[in-house]
Design a protein that fits this description.
The protein is α/β, with parallel strands linked by helices and 439 residues long. 37% of the residues lie in helices and 20% in strands. It is built from 14 helices and 15 strands. The strands form three sheets. Strands 3-4-2-1-7-9-10-8 form an eight-stranded mixed sheet, with helices on both faces. The longest helix has 20 residues, at 107-126. The structure holds aspartic acid (ASP).
């Protein structure tokens, strides 16, 4: 059995619902469907969830939100009518509007209704069972999910083999109040459902044919990554585009359930497979899984003669940062020098105080800070124990005249990370991509 989750753009209009039905019919194992609220139909369109938040804000400020609410209602009524369904949702919509105007609905309940109506319509369209997330996604008061209780409840509610549609994004607090995940949280609902039902695969359907090897705004038409491990994904998503909600990894990883990212608009593409490890190497010549990065880092660097023989110099530097609540990303070092690399935004406000405290407490011979640094990461599980990869990376960058400001390789050899000037960021990614991928 497969759990399949469809994101907002896959749920945007009746045409998308039809595509989903085709996708489900193509594989009878696709039995449990988790849906997002209707997303954008075109670039300038609005996501229903955004409109719901907007509606709530109106009411908070005492402004009438009928216009916005009616946009939301008509998106769903249009989908229903286009699909020729006779599901009376007007009553529920009217009731919701009434309660909203009377300030009787919480923000979380209101914004969860996007998923709720999506699931109602999809269940009716497919002839599947509607299983409300409020009946099984159980939060504790601290906002974490009680997985065991939730899994148990879902197993109790789903009629196996029949087909079920579940709204994503929300669940219920111990006191019965609706509680939502953070934005993009339908991914988590899908992962929880997959884990609860011991699915063979968790398919996450979106509008790209998998996780791309590089940011398409930087590299023209980058290839999709066919296979990626959870560890690699974590490295990639730390600094790159978010494909999956971060918290959606844990439930499926725990149960060793592979995740397959697929494209609703190109169902023939195999997408990206995410799992713990891969035994067979489908593409032995592909050493780099993906290239990612972020701009706007700062490097605080210091030298202190004889530092290598002194105990605790680095600790003093880190103590200062800890006191300011700042976490460090990388710590490249030499014999008598050490640097800390961290996002500029984190130190900007207290920079001079921090520098003064480091000077006072660690007493370096020199202390500098450099801004406008971009960090680029080449991620790939197959780089480990393979000589020559970093040579190739740095040769390619050198040939393109890109100066490297910092180098860091994790001991697990899962990635090679380097810093360049912000203005070389995009070029560095393109150079790497072109030297590893297209050749
Ligand atoms: N609709 C929610 C959001 O826009 C949840 C989701 O789609 O995953 O964040």
């Amino acid at each position: 059995m497969k759990v399949v989750k469809f994101g907002g753009s896959s749920m945007a209009d009746a045409g998308q619902y039809r595509k989903i039905r085709e996708i489900l019919m193509a594989d009878p194992e696709r039995k449990v469907v988790v849906v997002s609220a209707a997303g954008k139909r075109f670039a300038a369109d609005h996501k229903i969830t955004d409109l719901l938040y907007l509606c709530y804000a109106h009411i908070q400020y005492g402004v009438d939100c009928s216009g916005v609410f009616d946009m939301i209602a008509s998106r769903y009524l249009d989908i229903r009518d286009d699909l020729g369904l006779d599901l009376p949702i007007e009553g529920e919509l009217y009731d919701l509007k009434q309660r909203l105007n009377d300030k009787k609905v919480t923000q979380e309940e209101l914004v969860s209704r996007g998923e709720y109506f999506s699931a109602k319509l999809m269940a009716a369209y497919l002839g599947f069972q509607f299983v409300d997330a409020a009946d099984w996604v159980k939060f504790r008061f601290d906002g974490t999910v009680d997985k065991e209780a939730s899994y148990e409840a879902l197993r109790h509610h789903v009629i196996m083999g029949y087909g079920a549609v579940i709204p994503g994004f929300y669940g219920v607090m111990p006191d019965g109040a609706i509680h939502t995940f953070s934005r993009g949280g339908s991914d988590i609902t899908g992962a929880l459902a997959a884990a609860a039902l011991d699915a063979a695969v968790y398919e996450n359907w979106t509008d790209v044919s998998g996780i791309l090897m590089a940011d398409p705004r930087i590299v023209d038409d980058p290839q999709a990554i066919p296979e990626v491990t959870y560890d690699e994904l974590r490295e990639l998503s730390y600094s790159g585009a978010q494909v999956l909600h971060e918290d959606s990894i844990f439930p499926v990883r725990e149960k060793n359930i592979p995740v397959n990212i697929r494209n609703t608009n190109a169902p023939e593409a195999p997408g990206t497979m995410i799992q713990e490890s891969f035994t067979e190497d489908s593409d032995p010549d592909r050493f780099i899984t993906g290239i990612t990065g972020k701009k706007d880092f700062s490097i605080i660097s210091m030298t202190k003669r004889g530092m290598s023989n002194q105990v605790g110099v680095l600790q003093k530097v880190l103590n200062v940062l800890v006191r300011h609540g700042i976490s460090v990303d990388y710590v490249p070092n030499g014999i008598d020098n050490v640097s800390v690399v961290l996002p500029t935004a984190a130190i900007e406000k207290d920079l001079y105080t921090i520098m003064a405290e480091i000077q006072k407490e660690a007493e370096p011979d020199s202390l500098d800070v450099h801004h406008q640094i971009a960090v680029v990461a080449a991620v790939g599980r197959k780089m480990a124990f393979r000589p020559g990869i970093s040579g190739k990376i740095f040769a390619a960058l050198g040939e393109s005249g890109i100066n490297i400001r910092m180098i860091n390789q994790g001991p697990d050899e899962l990635n090679i990370i380097f810093g360049v000037d912000n203005h070389d960021f995009k070029e560095a990614i393109r150079v790497l991509y072109n030297s590893f991928v297209t050749k």
